[in-house]
Amino acid sequence: MMAPRDLLAEHPFLAGLEPRWLDNLAEHAHPVYRNRQHRLFAVGGSARHFWLIRSGLVVLDIHAPGRGDVVVESIGAGAVLGWSWLFSPYRWSFGAVVVEAIQAIEFEAAPVRRLMAVDPGLSAELTGRFMRVVVERLQATRVRLLDLYGFPTGAKP
Amino acid sequence: MKSAMMPQPYRVTARREETADTVTLDLAPLAAPLPPYAPGQFTMVYAFGVGEVPISISGGENGVITHTVRSVGAVTRAVCAARVGDTLGLRGPFGAGWGVPAPFGADLVLVAGGIGLAPLRPVLDHALRERDRYRHVLLLIGARTPGDLLYSSDHAAWARAGADVRVTVDRADRSWTGRVGLVTALFDELWLDPGRTTAYVCGPELMMRFTADALRARGIPEPAIRVSLERNMRCGVGWCGHCQLGPLLLCRDGPVVGYDHAAPLLTVKEL
Amino acid sequence: MAALLTSLDSLVAALRADRRQVIGPTVRDGAIVLAELDSARQLPYGWGVRVAPGGYRLRERADRAAFGHSAGPQSWKAYLHPPRTELWSTRRGESPAEPDEPPPRYAFLGVRPCDLRAIGVLDRVLGQGKYPSVRYAARRAATFIVAVNCTEPGEACFCVSAGGGPKAAAGYDLVLTELIGADTVRYVVEAGSEKGERLLSTLDTYPADAATAEASAAVDAAAGRMGRALPPGDLRALIAEKRDAAHWDDVASRCLSCANCTMVCPTCFCTTVEDTTDLTGEVAGRWQRWDSCFDPDFSYLHGGAVRTSTRSRYRQWLSHKVGTWHDQFGEAGCVGCGRCVAWCPVGIDLTAELAALASEETAS
């Protein structure tokens, strides 16, 4: 089995991160395997972890009365899951549940926050990488708001 | 010489309802068949007394032409309503296709949005028929809801034949246990080899732009990203002027063009 | 070998004797229009025109010139590429059939060099692509062209800057140059095809002699009397660079989107189709008719038009004419006849609009 540090180095989210920061982060990370239907977190819960997904699929959901658990987005291999731990009050806005068994790297949020507090370089780097993910997901969400496929798409029939 | 404006009669030999508003028709020639088609080409389909629409070819062999048609206007409504035994008129095949086969050993990435899977189907069929020619064959499908997925009963067979099929929907229903999100999010799961990848993208124009931009951001060169564009087409043969997109006459120079040609045009408003 | 005619009567008579329908300029409704001529006497002898942006008036000339006028409201495309044509008709369940009619045997009399080029442009769009229009090609092949070199450019003319000139290049069967005297007109005539040679050989002509040089001089002099000019430089590149120019808004504030420019343009070829059925619903037909990129429906795409603004529609028209036509057909779509300038109800002058676009580029 690969050491956490090597797993970190090969995950796209941390690609090219300086080795010393990988070492720092690896101290607060461990590999996990979670089965189908395992709930990683629930709405309103305390955001104590985040995950780098290596395989499998997780969905973000929220419970709507009368509609059940509504899925808003899925997070798959190669992606990072969880950003509410970055900002006070460190509570989840959506829930997350495994739909295809995952292999992931789970991070302890509090010590990573402390690392970031004492190392502005790491803080800037991680914040930037999360920012990029946030922007991509925001843009994807905006495109979904356009309801593209809802309109007639035409000449290709 | 036969005029390119004369439709040939074709009989509907099979009809499959794909979704609430989309139908697949197999059409067999009643008279002379049209010349063979290349994947990505289209025909002009005539519904008696109603009019004509351009429809991409989704398959068919030995003279049969398969069209998957979404009912969005008067003519497509009439085409979708055609029953087995009814006659439609076809002209074509017209236009520049996807440009398959791709080089030996290439990775093919097919990205389909909604009805955009229909014009890509001949590319997929080709890739699965000549599966050994290629390294990876990836099919990424985005749809509005699970109920809007085309050819859903074929997905498993495609996977067995060697395609890596991944599906995502904008809105899940309770039965859906797959991916939810924009089709571009699927790229995060993949490691694309920019030097080997040829991408074929088809769907609503904005979806194609976001997809092509995401592929470009992953290092795929613009000419290796093929998109199928759409404008009003009336004649299919370059006479009527309707399908212009800047320098392109899409019925002749398209509908499939490289993103190197398309990108500068798609961002000009009302071009 | 040039010859001299002292009247066009024999030419028109010979063309009619050859069972041709002679189409040429004549005065009607306060304009010089194209119509079928029974005799050369119907030509607009002694009439000229005064043209301005948004203006066209007949004026009496001091002489008897038949071709002393610039382009009128119509062009030859009305005959080669008619405004409305039946493509085919069919009964339900049967193969459609094209109308079974031989192409008309036209003789075009008085095709100016700009319009001769325009016919060549139409040939390349409709007659010479991967899918040539059989109908167009048949009409074209059956047409006899008598061109006339231009000795009288109008105020809206700019063929020289559009890459042409007052002397007819290839594509005619006969070409005339009108020599205007105090109270006579004579015509130097030359053949440009075998058909032309044959017809010319049936006419009683005089040796051209010194008239040939006189004709050349008159045509050469015309090149220097163009009323307008396109701005110099590569217009194709200018158009490609100026898609977002502010000046398109300026034009749009004046343009009525009326489509006059596309109707009078000798090269605008766009068409749409109309589907018809009879009252029983058993017989259907398909008609082709002229369309215009100024019509909002022109760019209709399930749910809405792509070009909703006048800005985008004018940009499409002008960009196609002088820019993207090169990409599509290997040449410009504008021959400099000036019709769009004269027949624009608000006097939009494409030469001025292009100059403004070019100067906006310099400013930026």
UniProtKB/TrEMBL annotation, chain C:
UniProt keyword annotation of Iron present: yes
One of the Pfam families matching this protein, by short name: Fer4_22
PROSITE patterns in the cross-refs: 4FE4S_FER_1, 4FE4S_FER_2
Keyword Calcium: no
Record keywords: Iron, Iron-sulfur, Metal-binding
Domain 4Fe-4S ferredoxin-type: start-end pairs: 244-276, 325-353
Listed PANTHER family: ANAEROBIC SULFITE REDUCTASE SUBUNIT A (PTHR40447:SF1)
Record protein name field: 4Fe-4S ferredoxin
